[in-house]
Amino acid sequence: MVLPAATLGTMAIPTGYLRGNFNRFWTYDAPSKILTEVTSRVPNGCGNNSAYTFNPNYGGVIISDATRAYAMGVYGVSIPKGGPVSFYGLYSYPCGSSDTSEDVWNFNVWAAVRGNGDVLFPAGDSSYNTYVITESLQNVTALMDDLYRTGAR
Fold first, then answer.
1. What is the pTM assigned to this prediction?
2. Where are the domains of the chain?
């Protein structure tokens, strides 16, 4: 990111949008290797943009299909531990359709977020590292373990 002047704000680093058939939501705490399904806690965001948030020091969030054979997640490190992530969000937008094809308003979202309107992003060049992983749910968590073990920030 390149800014002409210091700016207070919030930034998704990054955000992943998945079709509605990716409908199981997970959090992962890498140091303890705890994978938790939070599907029932992710609110319907249609009309209010509400989310489920998660704040591990090392880990991330994942969305999978019902079988867990296909999943995508994001791994990162918290700001206090030297990384760029303030929190993670999981969002669901099954707005008006149970159809899960690509051209309908039925999708789910994960995000790694820096700030909450309260981070001063400096002027000039800034880089932030997070890691997007796609595979089966089992392999996504194994790759997150690898990132933790190798000290990725």
1. 0.94
2. 2-140
1-11: buried (b, 16+ CB within 10 Å) or exposed (e) per residue? Answer: eeeeeeeeeeb
Spatial contact of 38 and 90, defined as CB atoms under 8 Å apart = yes
Q: What is the C-alpha separation between 18 and 32, in angstroms, rounded?
A: 27
Burial tier of 75 (Cβ tally within 10 Å: 0-12, 13-18, 19+): buried
Show Cβ contacts of residue 95 under 8 Å, excluding neighbours closer than 6 positions.
46, 47, 105, 106
Sole residue written with tokens 């669901």: 92
Beta bridge partners of 18: 108
pLDDT tens per residue across span 6-45: 999 999 999 999 999 999 999 999 999 999 999 999 999 9
User: Distance between CA atoms of 97 and 110, rounded to whole angstroms?
Assistant: 20
